[in-house]
Amino acid sequence: MTDFYVSYFVVIFLFIAAEDESRNRYKLFLECTLILTSVVPPELPIELSLAVNHSLLALQKLGIFCTEPFRIPFAGKVDICCFDKTGTLTSDNLIVEGVTAPNSGVEICPYPELPVETRRVLASCHSLVKMEDEVIGDPLEKACLAYAEWVLTRNDSVIPTKGNDLPLHIIHRYHFSSSLKRMSVIASYISNNSANVTYFAVTKGAPEILKSRFVEKPKNYDELFQKMSREGARVLALGYKELGVLTLQEVKKISRSEIESGLVFCGFLVMTCPLKSDSKRVMQEILCSNHKALIITGDNPLTAAHVAKELNFFDPTKTVLILNEPKNSIDDEWMWISVDRSVRIPLVPLQGSNYLVSSFELCVTGAALNVLLSVNRTFFDAILPHIKVFARTTPKQKELVINNLKLNGFVTLMCGDGTNDVGALKHADVGVALLSHPLPASKSKAATSEGRHRRHINASSDDRKRKDHIKSAGSHPHRINNAAAFQKIKNASSSLEPRVSETSKKLEKLLKEMEESEDVQVRLGDASVAAPFTSKYSSISSICHIIKQGRCTLVTTLQMFKILALNALILAYSQSVLYLDGVKFSDTQATVQGLLLAACFFFISRSKPLKSLAKQRPLSNIFNIYTLATISTQFLVHFFVLVYLVQQAHELDILHETEKVDLDAKFKPSLINTTVYVVSVILQTSTFAVNYHGRPFMESITENKGLLYSLALPSVMVGVLAAGLMPEMTVKFELVSLPAEVRDRFHLWSFVILVAMVFIVIPSAYQKFDRNQTDAI
């Protein structure tokens, strides 16, 4: 917008200053239109695409596939990172610790000593399917079946491998529902003493959900599963119901509600879900880079709070509060209750939301989320960014959390395994899906090296065949009519051998490059359709890679806007005011200048992020005081230098003062043209150098060797042209030699000091502004 206003005033000046009856008014109007359009650089879309595409390729090499490249800069603006728990932060390899017997308290009972009803629940209450000698389904259920040592057959029968338990046959499944938080199965068995089929129902689910469905349960039911959940275990309640000897038609008429009522309590299934090997390290890097992090899971709030504590989501000096549902009657109030139940605070404390978020760490369940939204929306918006755990949430509630964070002005990132997180992944600004069953890196590398070795052997075999064929041609003299011909073939074979070997090496190198390019590509069939980003590895380290590339792309985009804006302002001045003085560039000068600029833009777009995330945050857009102030300041410096040096050249160019300027004349080298060209190259080079950000978001200008050399080349070229060290070079560039008086009056050293001041003042001002912005966030 600033560029447009400046160009608008420049056009008015040109239109008034160039008022001459002998001039073609239509041509003048065309020139004014060109000035107005020049402030919108045509290369802008290309430069932005280069930066995004470079990040896209870098992410692919890291095993991250992106279907929506425009979201990469959003990753640099992320404020809050949201994570699913199971399969994302914790491993899918669940460890079954055991089952507590119905009356054994928290003690794990050995499997052979469990009641037969409990063993039947473990063996039959699942949604597993056997296909081609492989059991397919939920890792949790596969772990339970393996723990119980039962075998699943293709016809949905389960057979014990040990003990005297009867084989079971699964009749009907009521699959797990996120809203119901439970699943049930109808199965049957045939006793040894009878030919009748006996049917029974088994149920497993969240302990708090099944509590009211048991006929009898331990008095300390809540304390039992809460104690195990506080220790980080995943706890499921098990229920059993005998249906008796029925016909299949009678069984099909039984409703789910009837099956899931009047259950016999069979104990608690206790599992541990260890953290992934790199979850702590990656989460520490994310938290130290000034990002907020929270967990959105369907698991128990105590288990989720334990995982959040292990990953340092909570301040160790604060008490963790969970918004619990009232238990006694509908008249009870919702309360914030600590994990050890020693602290109780009303839903909306009298001290206000500031007291709650500053003194405690908060955990909210799905039911509590609905209450907060319906009771006091203002209070909910105030505490929302400070809630570290959302537990017992449905997929719709996960989506609701993400949308409310976005409504409050936060840029969100959601990471999940793509199952219950589809809605949240779609609505997040940056959605990252982790593949549930990725190909192990070691296996992939082994397969790659094996294939490479096989091709190397084949290539060597082909070389030997060629050599043997050539030698065999010389080993049969009756095929050769004379010795001269034989010697000629021998010489040709000796000269051909190094060529064949060189060709083989080139072919092997090409195959290696093709393999590497194939290794980093994610097949579309493997990628989650819900998320714009999909990692082919299950590690959350991909989050750090995406944020790094996002920050690098965002900073590159912003600095390109600044560079193009400054270049456009100088171009508008050159095409208007200086054009009236007959200043124009030759084709050679314009070509060289364009090539130098293209090289600088190319290497800026290929800037690489640093290996670690910085605590500082990049600016999110160009419409801020800092950006406008730096662009204006630099333009004023450039404008002053250009005007001053042109005036000095005017005083010495006596011929230009006496002759009338012919705007339509062919290009002719002059002192003013040489001055403007040399200064414009210096200004544009300094624009790239000053506005290149570098650390802490990307490699510095000295580390970006391509950019450093592309800036050093025009600097050296300008120095040589200004000093007149190579007169033949000056002629090729269609310039004139600068007299000694011109060089003295140009005060080049003062110009260097101005540039040095810009180098020092502007980066330091940015760092101060950036620190203030980080502290405010």
UniProtKB/TrEMBL annotation:
<dbReference type="InterPro" id="IPR036412">
    <property type="entry name" value="HAD-like_sf"/>
</dbReference>
<dbReference type="GO" id="GO:0015662">
    <property type="term" value="F:P-type ion transporter activity"/>
</dbReference>
<keyword id="KW-0256">Endoplasmic reticulum</keyword>
<comment type="similarity">
    <text>Belongs to the cation transport ATPase (P-type) (TC 3.A.3) family. Type V subfamily.</text>
</comment>
<dbReference type="GO" id="GO:0006874">
    <property type="term" value="P:intracellular calcium ion homeostasis"/>
</dbReference>
<dbReference type="Pfam" id="PF13246">
    <property type="entry name" value="Cation_ATPase"/>
</dbReference>
<dbReference type="GO" id="GO:0046872">
    <property type="term" value="F:metal ion binding"/>
</dbReference>
<keyword id="KW-0813">Transport</keyword>
<dbReference type="InterPro" id="IPR023214">
    <property type="entry name" value="HAD_sf"/>
</dbReference>
<dbReference type="InterPro" id="IPR018303">
    <property type="entry name" value="ATPase_P-typ_P_site"/>
</dbReference>
<keyword id="KW-0547">Nucleotide-binding</keyword>
<keyword id="KW-1278">Translocase</keyword>
<keyword id="KW-0479">Metal-binding</keyword>
<keyword id="KW-0460">Magnesium</keyword>
<dbReference type="InterPro" id="IPR023298">
    <property type="entry name" value="ATPase_P-typ_TM_dom_sf"/>
</dbReference>
<dbReference type="InterPro" id="IPR023299">
    <property type="entry name" value="ATPase_P-typ_cyto_dom_N"/>
</dbReference>
<dbReference type="GO" id="GO:0005789">
    <property type="term" value="C:endoplasmic reticulum membrane"/>
</dbReference>
<feature type="transmembrane region" description="Helical">
    <location>
        <begin position="706"/>
        <end position="726"/>
    </location>
</feature>
<feature type="region of interest" description="Disordered">
    <location>
        <begin position="443"/>
        <end position="477"/>
    </location>
</feature>
<keyword id="KW-0067">ATP-binding</keyword>
<keyword id="KW-1133">Transmembrane helix</keyword>
<feature type="transmembrane region" description="Helical">
    <location>
        <begin position="676"/>
        <end position="694"/>
    </location>
</feature>
<protein>
    <recommendedName>
        <fullName>Cation-transporting ATPase</fullName>
    </recommendedName>
</protein>
<feature type="transmembrane region" description="Helical">
    <location>
        <begin position="746"/>
        <end position="766"/>
    </location>
</feature>
<dbReference type="InterPro" id="IPR006544">
    <property type="entry name" value="P-type_TPase_V"/>
</dbReference>
<feature type="transmembrane region" description="Helical">
    <location>
        <begin position="625"/>
        <end position="646"/>
    </location>
</feature>
<keyword id="KW-0472">Membrane</keyword>
<feature type="transmembrane region" description="Helical">
    <location>
        <begin position="585"/>
        <end position="604"/>
    </location>
</feature>
<dbReference type="GO" id="GO:0005524">
    <property type="term" value="F:ATP binding"/>
</dbReference>
<dbReference type="GO" id="GO:0019829">
    <property type="term" value="F:ATPase-coupled monoatomic cation transmembrane transporter activity"/>
</dbReference>
<dbReference type="InterPro" id="IPR044492">
    <property type="entry name" value="P_typ_ATPase_HD_dom"/>
</dbReference>
<keyword id="KW-0812">Transmembrane</keyword>
